[in-house]
Specification:
The protein contains eight helices and 22 strands. The chain has 438 residues and is an alpha+beta fold. The structure holds oxidized coenzyme A.
């Protein structure tokens, strides 16, 4: 065992730099090359790595301290004394201060170059490399985050809080506002598109080409537009298409509706889809989650939103606890929620809390489409109209009723293989609903 002094290595042209972030504390076990602290000059910020693996015994610096090349930043207890070999370098950055088994020696940590040149990016606020990396991973525009650290430095907490506000819809980034303004503005006067480097929205005198009528855009449509724009821009979304053979399920549905004719409850394919989706969500829990900063929130409830076309625009009522309800109850509740949506009578509670959404155009038509994820959910299923198609069974083509499925998913949480598996599993369930019992 040896106690090493870990020192600030050669940091280039900077005479003195300030400690802005401590990345380890006494008692921490660290690996060689692990970052110990972040220092910052007025030109750059950089992380100081450890030359050895070991346990931090004592920190010799605190936030705000000024350090220079050779300053001791911490004492490290290491068993790695063999690695403390004399290095062919003129700046010892590590000294053994207590080495019962060996004589004093020194080693140079791996050279570490400044990782961020703020000089080259004059508009970027102060932030450590790890905070910049974190912001980049989340897609958070750092120059829009208000820093609460010293000299207005943006901290990890600032980035997390900003990201949460955007997800909650209380804050919009300039990029979102710009596109929303452009999309919301019938006249294209929203100049904020410039923030995205986009050319201005085309401004056309339509009356020059023929008669026109102007209508104000409704409140619900405006809200939807802002949300859809944010979700379309911020989520790296991909859509996988597949088909489910619902021949037997449709026969069962028709029979069920005959049986329930007197009660008046009509079961549509959407009720089965909700039930089948719950089974698939249980099988692939990441589809029933949300991103929250650095964490994934996996939900242990299955509340399914469904898009409803209403005279006022798109609404998404939420069928709560779909896992605990049977097909007939789901159908009844869905019909009530859809009616309320069309009458504009949904309460906020009936429109919130969804963990996954289905958008069914099955009653209308079409083959496939690419629905936009209803943030902060991470996936949405689009469904179109089923039709009878010739399906090869290995010997002959059979007429089968096929349902087109389009699953859009957030690539930050889900990957293509999982999405393909989700669709395959969902199609299996719809092919034989007995599988929900498994
Ligand atoms: N394939 C074939 N037929 C289908 C079907 C499908 N996938 N889904 C529904 N149908 C049939 C129903 O069985 C019903 O047939 P009958 O009239 O013969 O009984 C008919 O289509 C109409 O169904 P519906 O639309 O009334 O009922 P639903 O449960 O399927 O859907 C609701 C309810 C509220 C989701 C729907 O009315 C609606 O608003 N859909 C539009 C959703 C939308 O706008 N999505 C896009 C969002 S992105 O802008």
């Amino acid at each position: 065992m040896a106690i090493l002094e870990i020192k600030v290595p050669d940091i280039g042209d900077f005479a003195e730099v300030a400690v802005i972030e401590l990345l380890v504390k006494p008692g921490d076990s660290i690996k060689a090359e692990q970052s110990l602290l972040t220092v910052e000059s007025d030109k750059a910020s950089m992380e100081i790595p450890s030359s050895h693996a070991g346990v931090v015994k004592e920190l010799r610096v605190k936030l705000g301290d000024k350090v220079a090349e050779g300053s001791v930043v911490l004492l490290l207890e290491t068993a790695d004394v063999a690695a403390v070999a004399p290095a062919a370098a003129n700046v010892p950055a590590t000294n053994v201060v207590s080495a019962p088994d060996r004589s004093t020696t020194s080693a140079l940590p791996a050279p570490h170059q400044p990782t961020e040149q703020t000089q080259a990016l004059p508009h970027l606020p102060h932030a450590s490399p790890s905070v910049r990396k974190f912001a980049r991973e989340l897609g958070v525009p750092l120059n829009e985050v208000k820093g609460t650290g010293g000299k207005g430095r943006v901290t990890l907490q600032d980035v997390q809080a900003f990201s949460r506000s955007v997800m909650a819809g209380t804050v919009a980034t300039k990029a979102i506002t710009a596109v929303a303004e452009q999309k919301n503005s019938a006249t294209g006067e929203g100049a904020a598109g410039a923030a995205l480097g986009l050319i201005p929205w085309p401004k056309v005198d339509f009356a020059k080409f023929g008669p026109i009528e102007r209508k104000n855009i409704g409140r619900i449509q405006k809200i939807s537009a802002a949300n859809l724009t944010r979700n379309a821009i911020m989520i790296p979304a991909v859509t996988n298409h597949d088909d489910a053979d619902i021949t037997d399920l449709e026969a069962f549905r028709v029979q069920l509706n005959k049986e329930n004719e007197k009660s008046g409850t009509k079961v549509t394919m959407l009720a089965f889809l909700i039930k089948a989706c719950v089974a698939a969500l249980k099988q692939f829990p990441q589809f029933n989650s949300s991103l929250d900063g650095e964490q994934l929130v996996l939900k242990k409830y299955w509340h399914i939103g469904f898009a409803a076309d209403t005279p006022n625009g798109l609404m998404v009522p939420v069928l709560k606890d779909a896992d605990q309800k049977g097909i007939v109850q789901i159908s009844t509740e869905m019909a009530e929620l859809a009616k309320k949506a069309r009458e504009g009578k949904l309460s906020p509670a009936e429109m919130t809390g969804a963990s996954f959404t289905i958008s069914s155009l099955g009653g209308i038509g079409g083959r496939y489409f690419t629905p936009i994820i209803n943030a902060p959910e991470v996936a949405i299923l689009g469904v179109c109209k089923s039709r009878t198609e010739p399906v090869w069974d290995g010997k002959a083509f059979q007429p089968r009723l096929m349902l087109p499925l389009s699953l859009t998913w957030d690539h930050r949480v889900i990957d293509g293989a999982a999405a393909a598996r989700f669709n395959v599993y969902l199609a299996q369930i719809l092919g034989d609903m007995r599988r929900v019992l498994l």
